[in-house]
Amino acid sequence: MSASEDTTRARDRATVDAFLRTDRESRLRRHTLYTEDGSAALFFTDVGRPLVVRGRENLRRHGELSLQVLPDWEWTDVEVYETLRPGLVFVECRGEGTIRFPGYPAGRYRNHFLHRFELVDGLIAASREYTNPIEHMRSLGIGTPHIDRDWIPTEEHA
């Protein structure tokens, strides 16, 4: 690995580490970690397609709204994976906090997350958040369908 790749990786890692900070001020500044035209996508959703927020100003507004609806959010069990390709970083973690979505009762939201970050010059050009939308719906008190899979020899049905 070259010295310039080491420098790029260290800068990218610092950006991802900053993204994962959950104190109020860090969350309000998170949009500054993105390129001007950067995007953040919630990839698996109840509508069957990603929800994408594009542009630093929209990301700023999203951060403000996120503080209102997920006021005490915390990432735990964080594992950061640097890849063979500089500028691409994955994070696997758990997240938990109070959820206050308009039109739904307040609840507790817990889920498992995989984040994909594409970085350019130390800034996030695109981030994707992969998580289970069923857990999101449950935290809001929304009933979810059930698929009968008793025939699969899982630990529950062995």
From TrEMBL:
The keyword Glycoprotein does not apply. GO terms for biological process: antibiotic biosynthetic process. Keywords: Antibiotic biosynthesis. InterPro entries: NTF2-like_dom_sf (IPR032710), PhzA_PhzB (IPR004964). This is PhzA/PhzB family protein. It holds the Pfam family PHZA_PHZB. Belongs to the PhzA/PhzB family.
